[in-house]
Each structure stands twice: as structure tokens, then as C-alpha cells.
Amino acid sequence: MRYAVLSDVHANREAFAAVLEKISELDIDKVLYLGDIVGYNPDPNFCIERLFSLTSVMVRGNHDKAVAGLISTEYFNDVAEAAVRWTRRQLTAGNLTRMRNLKVGPLEVGNGLVICHGAPRDEDEYIFQRTVARENFDFLAEHLPGTKVCFFGHTHVPMIIDEEGGVVLAVEEFRLEADRRYLINPGSVGQPRDGCSGASWGIYDDREHSFRHIRVSYPLAETQRKIMAAGLPDFLAARLFAGR
Ligand code: ZN
Q1: Is the pTM higher than 0.90?
Q2: CA of 66 to the centre of ligand 1 (A)
Q3: How far does residue 157's CA lie from ligand 1's centre (Å)?
Q4: What is the pLDDT of residues 63-116, one digit of tens each?
Q5: Is 2-242 in CATH node 3.40.50.970?
Q6: Would you kindly state where each structural domain of the chain is located, as residue ranges?
Q7: Cβ atoms of 230 and 42 closer than 8 Å
């Protein structure tokens, strides 16, 4: 079985459409989605509807929760908060209901795979530090002992973390060891933050037990134009080019 692993589309229609086109050309059996469908970019309804037509295997992200009114935006920065308020005004009633009803990670999706937004023990936690990764491997061992790979998003930085302590950034093809656990972040489709502007995602193949990281370029000037036209903060357009 080949899984496309996507996260953090953040309402970027052009980036998502480019990834969907690539998925349609490849031999993909199932799509896993790690949260943050909306926020930051200008096409929330399109992205929600396309994602729901593609898969039902998904968890919520912090932006999805905020837009749904399930959490306050007091811990969001001003730019993110402005985008949450803007997004809430754009959503159709049906899509707002979809945002409210998203599942909370971690979610076991079969074959030793788990999906979550930030981290398995806390959907809002950022996995950037080795100690945080270590504690989350311990959480998996205790609470989800059958886990081989836990996919996470939230940081927007593609990363493969081996439970023995190794970290690999943005490799194209990576063979996983059969007797180790991994935490894998495919990066962000709609707002990458690792210094590259291309939409970031990956494919996990359970027969080869491998993860392939993929970058897809997209017409980001069009997304930037729409961000400005929508009256969203300028910074959101600038950061797409910088990939930061
Ligand atoms: Zn995000």
C-alpha cells in the first residue's frame, strides 16, 4: 500500500492543486492528512472540499480548531489571528461544521501507522527538540505500542526522526529500519518553512517500508496576488516566496 502523507495545506489552493495533480499521476492507495486545512491563505472552502473528496483519514490542527471556535486565539500571533478571523467569515456553514467535527489526534490508521498534528502526546506541541521527540517516543511505546511510524505536522519543516536519535532533513528517499520507531513530518503543502517554497509532502510505502519526500513547485505569485486582494496580512504573501 502506498500512502500520500499531507499536512498544513493552510487554504493554499494553488499549492494543493499542484500536489493533487502529482498524486493523480502516481500510484497512491490512500491519503493521510495531518491537520491545518485552513488559516493563512485565501482559499479555505476549496481546500476543505477537495480534501474531503480525497480522504476521510485526517486529524484537526490548531488553525482548524481556532476557525471552528473550539479554542481562543490568545496564543496566536497577530498575523495568524487575523487570518483565523478572515477565514471564519469565508467558510460555508457546511465547511464550518466539518471543521468543528474533525478528529483529535493521535489516530491509529492501521499497519502500525499513527497520525497526529503536533505530537502524539499533545496535538499542539512542536517537535523541534530531541528531548521532546524522546518523550513522544516514550508516549508511543506506552500508549500506542504497535506504532512503527507516527506522522506529524505543525512545524512545517520536513523531518525524519529515528527513535535511536538520528534526525534526517528533507531526504528524497529513505529506507526505514524494521525494528525502529519513527516520527516523520512531510513538511507543509501550503506554507513551507524550511527555506524552500515548493509544496512539501511525501509517500510512505508499507511494502518497502520507505518514505519519499517530494517537492512540487506551484504558481505562488497567484496565491500571493489573492492574499493581497483578500486583505490578508502582506507578510503571508512574502513568506511563501521565502519558504519561512
Ligand atoms: Zn500549520
Answers
A1: yes
A2: 12
A3: 10
A4: 999 999 999 888 899 999 999 999 999 999 999 999 999 999 999 999 999 999
A5: no
A6: 2-242
A7: yes
